[in-house]
Prior knowledge:
- The chain is α/β, with parallel strands linked by helices.
- It has one domain: Vaccinia Virus protein VP39 (Rossmann fold).
- Helix content is 39%, strand content 22%.
- The protein contains 12 helices and 7 strands.
- Strand 1 (51-55), helix 5 (61-68) and strand 2 form a beta-alpha-beta unit.
- Helix 4 crosses helix 5 and helix 8 crosses helix 12.
- The protein is globular.
Amino acid sequence: MGEQTTAGEFDGHERRMWAGAADAYAGSFAALCGATAGALLDAAEVRAGTRVLDVGTGPGTVAAAALALGAEVVAVDAEPGMVALAAANAPGAQVRHAVLPALPFPDDAFDAAVANFVVNHVEDPRAALRELRRVVRPGGRVAVTIWHGTENSAMSLFGLALDEAGVRRPARPTLPVDFARTAEGLRGLLEQAGWAEAVGRELAWTHREHPEVWWSGPAGGVAGIGMTVTGQPPATVARIKSAYDRLAAERVAGDGLIDIPALALLASGRRQETR
């Protein structure tokens, strides 16, 4: 459970959590998160000629998918390492550094905005969504994804390994402005931020990955689990890895991969036409 935070503390924690982790993320968790790109772009009605803003682009997975549709893409991220990766992976996009909820774009600059697993990583999600509304033209669309609020099965192996190794997970700062991690909760968040015709739904799939690739995320310091693992003494890291190897071996299929169940939320809306 998180602890009460002061203004700026949550965002500061997020910057520290992702600092220097771009390459490790791209080689581990990015494929899992990228699985929602098609549904996200479809919900935002991105097609050939759409001028779309991809916020929190990470290694550029969604930006590259939008380019493949023929869209005009601008992509931003708060982590400089991600900006560099996205520029390499989506060479047709304009990629730059920017941090929600203060984007360096004029009002009504885009036809659509997308944010893949982003709004739960900013201190004030409503302010972030209001900022996206500002930069999207009247009649334009937004689509966002986050993880479902139930136990995230995609990360359960790591939690079990920490427990077996006797490692206590540190509390992380809570969102000062929080919301229910359900389809209705995310839909309501868009509505509260002024988006019209807001709808929400669940996205469920199974990601398949090699156990060593999956482990490379925490080992590389990615996200909260990575901060926990890499913050341990070497002997403790070795205990966590030993526990992880045993647990993963129980789940390995004949092709050497493990099944990783994932459950996310997708919500979308339209900016009201001006009269």
